[in-house]
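Please decode residue identities from the backbone states below.
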């Protein structure tokens, strides 16, 4: 990764969240600016669109590092009245009705849509000799529902499923192992909770903590991070643990970050991030 001058990151809440995430860690290590387009609930339609917008605006070059962190395919983004509506996993969100989900949510259809996005991005970057990596939150070709440990997009013997996988096999080969596989052995439901229990009594969020983001980068990119970067990541994680532990003593039961006061929410975002990423305007 020598001579990298800018980082562009695209993804969902696994890319940009309340605390330190992987784009900031990379930017700290490489000492370059990072443009973070991650958005909570963002699906692959949002990710593909913001990738295209960023390329059009900033003109990606061979001096850039581009990383698309694709999320699970079972998401539906909408651009309405000038804003992106990104409710996240179609099976657990509260925007689309149960009737809509029953009638229109099709994991295989989502896969067909999203593999075209991945192929287009991957081919574009390869043809222009731009350093690009494809991350994935969960196994894109198997887990439409990110919470499931079973393949739920299609039976592996389904001919249509096999045709689409074979059609895009070159692009699929570029996908790094997923966050859920690397960090929680493909079981976010139970293993993430067990991981959080090392630090918290009742709090569990479902997103990688700063040190888990570091572990993911070390695993999939084989980077030997500096002692300085590692120390800073530990500091941000300890800041978050301290804040949450104090709140646990108050709540005495499980709680979500959104239940905290505005003051505490701002404190987390200030003390638990490097705040290195640039926030470009998204159309």
């Amino acid at each position: 990764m020598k001579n990298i001058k800018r980082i562009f990151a695209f993804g969902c809440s696994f890319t940009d969240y309340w605390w330190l995430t992987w784009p900031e860690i990379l930017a700290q290590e490489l000492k370059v600016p990072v443009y973070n387009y991650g958005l909570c609930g963002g699906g692959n339609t949002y990710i593909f669109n913001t990738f295209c917008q960023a390329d059009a605006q900033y003109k990606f070059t061979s001096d850039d590092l581009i990383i698309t962190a694709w999320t699970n395919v079972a998401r539906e983004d909408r651009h309405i009245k000038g804003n992106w509506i990104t409710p996240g996993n179609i099976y657990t969100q509260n925007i689309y009705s149960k009737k809509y989900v029953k009638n229109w949510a099709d994991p295989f259809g989502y896969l067909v849509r999203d593999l075209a996005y991945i192929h287009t991005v991957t081919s574009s970057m390869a043809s222009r000799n731009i350093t690009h990596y494809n991350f994935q939150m969960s196994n894109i070709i198997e887990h439409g529902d990110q919470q499931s440990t079973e393949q739920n997009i299609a039976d592996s013997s389904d001919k249509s499923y096999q045709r689409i996988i074979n059609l895009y096999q070159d692009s699929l080969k570029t996908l790094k192992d997923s966050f859920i596989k690397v960090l929680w052995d493909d079981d976010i439901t139970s293993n993430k909770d067990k991981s959080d229990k090392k630090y918290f009594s009742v709090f569990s969020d479902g997103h990688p903590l700063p040190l888990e983001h570091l572990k993911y980068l070390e695993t999939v990119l084989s980077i030997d991070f500096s002692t300085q970067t590692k120390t800073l990541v530990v500091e941000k994680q300890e800041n978050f643990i301290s804040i949450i532990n104090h709140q646990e003593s108050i709540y005495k039961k499980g709680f979500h970050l959104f239940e905290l006061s505005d003051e505490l929410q701002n404190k987390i975002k200030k003390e638990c991030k490097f705040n290195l990423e640039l926030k470009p305007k998204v159309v």
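Observation: The longest strand covers residues 64-70.
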